[in-house]
Protein 1
Amino acid sequence: MPAGPDAAAAGRLRSSAWFASRGRPGMIYRSWLRAEGFTPEVFDGRPVIGIANSWSELTPCNVHLRGVADAVKRGVWQAGGFPLEFPTMSLGETLMRPTAMLFRNLMAMEVEELLRANPLDGVVLLSGCDKTTPAMLMAAASVDLPAIMVTGGPMLNGKYRGADVGSGTHVWKFEQELAAGRMTEQECVTAESGMARSCGHCMTMGTASTMACIAETLGMALPGSATWPAADSRRLLTAQLAGQRIVALARSDLRPSQIMTRQAFENAIVINAAIGGSTNAVIHLLAIAGRVGVPLRLDDFDELARPVPTLVNLMPSGRYLMEDFCYAGGIPAVMAELGDLLHAGHVGVTGRRLAENIADAQCWNRDVIRSADDPLQPPGSGTAVLHGNLCPGGAVIKQSAASPHLMKHRGQALVFDSIEEYHLAAGDAQLRADESTVLVVRGAGPKGYPGMPEVGNFVLPRKLLERGVTDMVRISDARMSGTGFGTVVLHVAPEAVVGGPLALVRTDDWIELDVPARTLTLQVSDDELARRRDRWAPPENPHRRGYARLYVEHVLQADQGADLDFLVGASGADVPRHNH
Ligand code: FES
């Protein structure tokens, strides 16, 4: 074990400041909790383990987490800890408006304060849906209490007419089929019923699956735990093991800052490339790294991913789903295949080196997890980071989900100031666009929308879909769902509403995308851009009060993780002692 001395033996358990107090203060804390019917032994100096539960009926991906919490409790009791489950904010990706991303930082702030304010020695973080996993990791990083993440696991494979159907990915496909007249409304309704046929998060390699794999790779979740389907009994077994393990972590005081090191983030970037992970991982990893004080740059994602082949054959980049990935061996099998591309000495919540964790890993299906000699996509086909006069702060494109013939493309811009404006125009048979047009949507960045919604892979104009066009270059300051696909340039920074060059583009300007060269160029002279800038004025913040105002005033740009500026960094777990 690489951790420090036994915190319990050294009398350093944080909860002792509450429960070991003599006289009136200790009596208040103990008697108050005994209202729940606990026997006095729970206050004998054992680690108090919080179970932070993002369960909600408004977050179907997390709705089974109460059962998972029960399994965690079994493990905590078994190992001699004292488990206390508590609810956190929950972020349901598909339901929340204007976008769940607006609230990721709010949830991170809420969980951080709950962890710090309560008498906890360690915490098990229960997450699932896209934003709940990064929010909890950000919180854990800022408090730096011993922590293990247990994600809820993916849904079972979706099914429609005998074929696998991927959550999200097939929604976009069916939308295009409907718009092109190749599918009826009734067929779409029938398809819906087989799309989400069990509890769990989206079972494509969308953001939820990506972030679960990343939590495992960072070392914050148990090896192999990311991929067990939510409905598989081994999901609960994993939860029970995590309950056992967190008690040991609390005793040894192995903390997130010792686990989420630069090596851990580098491993996460490599794994994200190998699994064909979501572009959202870029933003979330930058934000988590900012919390834990690890210097991480947007360009690290390109540089570290270049030698990495895409191995995992999952939608949206490939054909399989998370259930298949699990049975093929999951993340440990991918790690074993990547060999020297990973830091094998990294130590996570198991207390063992990564190399030891994956010593027995095997691949059981070579079409799902390809070998490095026969990858799904060659090295360097992961998320690319672009630079140029249209995106001085950078932009990203998911190459594995893009069309090869558009990776080098020059076309004239058709510009929309909002996604709503685009949607109004997209059905217009007279729209001045052909397949060479570069569609530009702005006003969808962190401050602009606000919250940077997942609209970057907007559906193509109807008249072009009807003509059989399946992809076009699309550029925006928005994000894209991890389940989405297409030649879409995302996260353009700085965004338009803060005066990024995206604000200066005009319809009919020429834009050149050159992904192999990693450039995105607005072919307009510097003098002309300067003239346009002189005439540009920033829009007023329309949000006069509440969280939206706080968010718009303080959110950072995409290349910095879109965290709130005052939340970057850590404050630790210490709180002034309140004297009852
Ligand atoms: Fe929750 Fe996809 S909507 S994981």
Note: The two ends are 38 Å apart (CA to CA).
Protein 2
Amino acid sequence: MAARSTAPSVRARKGNGDPLVMVTAYDAPTARIADEAGVDLILVGDSVAMVVLGYDDTLQVTVDDMAHHVAAVARTRPGAMVVADLPWMSYHLAVGDAVANAARLVRAGAEAVKLEGGRKRIPVVEAILDAEIPVMGHLGLTPQSVHAMGGFKVQGRSVDAARDLVDDAKALAAAGCFSIVLEGVPDQVARMVTDAVDVPTIGIGAGPDCDGQVLVLHDLLGLDDRTPPKFVRRYARLKHDGVAAVRAFAEDVRARRFPGPEESYHLSDGVAEALGLYAGPA
Ligand code: KIV
């Protein structure tokens, strides 16, 4: 059996040619799917807001919501390392509150937290690390900044923006982040960042040259059939298959084909006879 991933073992994968694999999961069944497939890391992402809870952005989930989903994932005792997103406004005010919020997610079962932003987050990153909680950074298209960015837009397209991303990544790595998610940036910029830092980068919409890749599980499983972002590859069509399965069930119920004898409980012949019921074929 492969050794469990930990913050130090993930960090040690930098540049060893063995890409890290991370997917999101938000509950016990999705955690079991991810873990049985052998991923290195499970991210309980604040994307739960959009892919599970039906919101238009990630800004609606709270620490309570995240703890609820982290606990469901952790109860499955996955072999993969569990990383939890600190939601919007859980680390933007007092640094002490940020540490307490990170601790809540750890007590719910997370082994590390992820937060969005670069140099301006260094004090909070350092405080969380000081509480012995590993921190994963997240740069580029940071969904919690949707309004500041003017939408979910690819970042780092200009010379200055690309250089800023490199400087942010260096600052996060120097502060002690064990890895950095790079989301929605041109592949050349992701390569610049990956070459510039000594911790693994994990890309989503960041091209092939990161040290690992992450996808939202519901996107890769096709649990939604709306047009996905360009960077998603669908490996299944579970929404399509699910609709077909429920439609078949509905047809069977309406045609009285469900349930059949094998899906029903039966009295013993003796009891049926004593009740004056026909007990079945002689
Ligand atoms: O919340 C999330 O799913 C994420 C990934 C997109 C990296 O942060």
Note: The longest strand covers residues 135-140.
